[in-house]
Design goal:
With 428 residues, the chain is of the alpha/beta class. It folds into two domains: 2-43 and 383-422, no CATH class; 54-373, Glycosidases (TIM Barrel), CATH 3.20.20.80. 29% of the residues lie in helices and 24% in strands. The chain contains ten helices and 16 strands. It has helices at residues 77-86, 96-99, 108-119, 145-162, 188-196, 198-212, 227-238, 258-270, 308-327, 361-373, and strands at residues 2-7, 25-33, 44-52, 55-59, 89-93, 124-128, 169-174, 217-222, 245-252, 276-283, 331-336, 379-382, 388-394, 396-402, 408-412, 416-422. It has an eight-stranded parallel β-barrel with strand order 4-5-6-7-8-9-10-11, surrounded by four helices. It has a four-stranded mixed β-sheet with strand order 1-16-2-13, with no helix packed on it. Strand 8, helix 7 (227-238) and strand 9 form a beta-alpha-beta unit. The chain is globular. The chain starts with a strand and ends in a 6-residue tail after the last strand.
Length: 428
C-alpha cells in the first residue's frame, strides 16, 4: 500500500547523475513507514530504472517477428536484441505507396504485428508519415483532384483509428517546404498540393488526424531547416493549426554539422514553444558524400563500405551529437535513421551495426551513454533516522522496493515527488 502527493513549489536541488544536464533530472523523497504510520529508520530501499522519458529512437521498419515491412529483409534475433539495448522508441513506415499499393488492401495486419512486438517490449511508436508527396500510392494518378483529396482524408482517418492506442504519435505531414513545387515525377499528392496550396494540405493532415484521435501527438516534419521552415510553422500557427511537436531531420551524409550548428537550429525552432524531435539522424562510417551534391538522392554508387577510419569518426560524432541534443531543454526525442548497414537509405554506411550484424563503435558509444552514463543501475540505500531517502535520476519511470515488499512504480518528472511507502508488519 502506498500514497503519493506532489509538491509543486519545491525546486530540485543541485544534484546530477553523471553528465546529465540538470533539466533532465527528476527527484523524489521517499518515506518508509510501518503499518502504524511510524517512520522506519535504516530500511533498505532499492531503486531500479525502467525507462527514460527522453525518446531514444530508431526506425522500426525491420524489427519484430512478423513479415518485414521493407519488403526486403529483417533484423536477425541477435540484431533485434542489440536494437532493444539502446532504443525506447521506433518509427514505423506508413509510406502510402508501400502500405497500400493496391487500393483497399492496406498492410494493416503486418504493421500491427510489428507494432505489437515492439510495444510488448516497452517501445513507444510513431507512424511516418500520414501525408507526403513521395512514395505515394500509384493508383492516386487514376483519380481527379477531389477524389485524391477524399482518398487522402479517408486514409488518415482509417490508419489513425486502426492504430489508436498502439501508435499515438504521427508525422502528420512530411516536407511541406517543397511540397507544392516538388518535381520528382507525377504523383497524386503533388498534384493536390499544387492545386490546394501548402496551408490547405497542413490543415487537412492535422484536422483529420486530430479529430480521429484527440490524444495523438502530431508532428510537422522537414529536412529544410532554413528560415523557410520557420515561416511554414508561423503560417500554420497563425491559421490555428498547431502541431504538438516540431520534427527536424539531420541526415548528415556530407559530414557532421557540429554542435554549434545543431544547437543553433534547436535555438531557432525552440522559439515556437513546442517540443523538438530530431526525427531522422544519419552519420556515416565510410566515405562522405561529395559536398557539391544538392539532392542526396542523386548520389548513386555501386559500393559504399564502412571503414575503420570512418567508424571511429562516426562514433565520435554520434556521441557529440547526442550529448548536444540532450543538453538542449527543448529537445525531447532523437531518432537515428536505420540500424544495420544492410538497410540504410541510399545504401550509405550509416548503420550502428555492420552488414554482418556486428556492432560498430558508434553502437558502443550510444550504449555507454544511454544504458550506462544516463541510466541508474539498481541501487540500494538506507533510510535516515526519520525513514526518508532522496532519489535522483534521469527523468523517467522507476520501481522502488523495500526489502520483502512488492515494488512500487515511481515516476521522476519535472516536479519534486514525495511518496510514502507503507510496509506490512512482516516488513523491516
Amino acid at each position: 500500500m502506498h500514497t503519493v502527493r506532489r509538491m509543486h513549489t519545491v525546486a530540485p536541488p543541485a544534484v546530477a547523475l553523471g553528465s546529465v544536464p540538470m533539466h533532465r533530472l527528476g527527484e523524489a523523497v521517499v518515506t518508509v513507514v510501518g503499518a502504524d504510520d511510524e517512520p522506519i529508520a535504516n530500511a533498505d530501499v532499492t531503486i531500479t530504472q525502467i525507462r527514460h522519458d527522453f525518446a531514444f529512437g530508431n526506425t522500426g521498419f525491420d524489427v519484430g517477428d512478423g513479415e518485414d515491412l521493407t519488403g526486403e529483409w529483417q533484423l536477425t534475433a541477435a540484431e533485434a536484441e542489440l536494437w532493444l539495448q539502446i532504443h525506447n522508441a521506433a518509427t514505423l513506415p506508413f509510406y502510402w505507396g508501400r502500405f497500400e499499393p493496391t487500393r483497399g488492401a492496406p498492410r494493416t495486419a503486418e504493421m500491427r504485428r510489428t507494432a505489437q512486438w515492439l510495444r510488448q517490449r516497452g517501445v513507444a511508436l510513431k507512424g511516418h508519415p500520414l501525408v507526403w508527396h513521395t512514395v505515394t500510392a500509384p493508383w492516386l494518378l487514376d483519380l481527379d483532384l477531389d477524389e485524391i483529396e477524399r482518398a487522402q482524408r479517408e486514409r488518415i482517418r482509417r490508419d489513425v483509428a486502426d492504430f489508436a492506442g498502439l501508435v499515438d504519435t504521427w508525422d502528420a505531414i512530411n516536407e511541406t517546404v517543397i511540397m507544392p513545387v516538388f518535381d520528382n515525377g507525377d504523383n497524386g499528392i503533388t498534384r493536390l498540393a499544387k492545386d490546394r496550396g501548402r496551408l490547405a494540405m497542413l490543415r487537412l493532415a492535422f484536422d483529420e488526424a486530430r479529430e480521429t484521435n484527440p490524444n495523438a501527438v502530431l508532428l510537422v516534419n522537414d529536412f529544410d531547416l532554413s528560415p523557410a521552415y520557420e515561416r511554414v510553422i508561423e503560417e500554420m500557427m497563425d491559421a490555428g493549426i498547431r502541431p504538438d511537436a516540431i520534427g527536424l531531420q539531420t541526415h548528415m551524409h556530407q559530414g557532421y554539422r557540429g554542435e554549434d550548428e545543431i544547437l543553433e537550429v534547436a535555438d531557432r525552432f525552440a522559439r515556437f514553444g513546442l517540443p523538438l524531435h530530431f526525427t531522422e539522424t544519419t552519420l556515416l562510417s565510410g566515405d562522405l558524400m561529395p559536398p557539391e551534391i544538392d539532392d542526396l538522392n542523386d548520389y548513386q554508387v555501386d559500393h559504399w563500405p564502412s571503414t575503420p577510419e570512418g567508424e571511429a569518426r562516426q562514433a565520435d560524432e554520434i556521441e557529440r551529437h547526442y550529448r548536444s541534443l540532450v543538453s538542449h531543454p527543448a529537445v525531447e526525442a532523437v531518432t537515428y535513421w536505420g540500424f544495420s548497414d544492410r538497410g540504410m537509405w541510399l545504401g550509405a554506411p550509416g548503420g550502428l551495426v555492420r552488414a554482418d550484424g556486428t556492432p560498430k563503435p558508434s553502437f558502443d558509444a550510444l550504449r555507454r551513454l544511454i544504458a550506462d552514463e544516463w541510466w541508474v543501475t539498481p541501487t540500494t540505500v538506507r533510510t535516515d533516522s526519520v525513514g526518508r531517502v532522496t532519489l535522483s535520476g534521469f527523468r523517467g519511470e522507476y520501481a522502488v522496493s523495500v526489502a520483502g515488499q512488492p515494488a512500487v512504480p515511481l515516476r521522476l518528472g519535472r516536479d519534486l515527488l514525495a511518496e510514502t511507502i507503507r510496509v506490512s508488519p512482516a516488513g523491516p
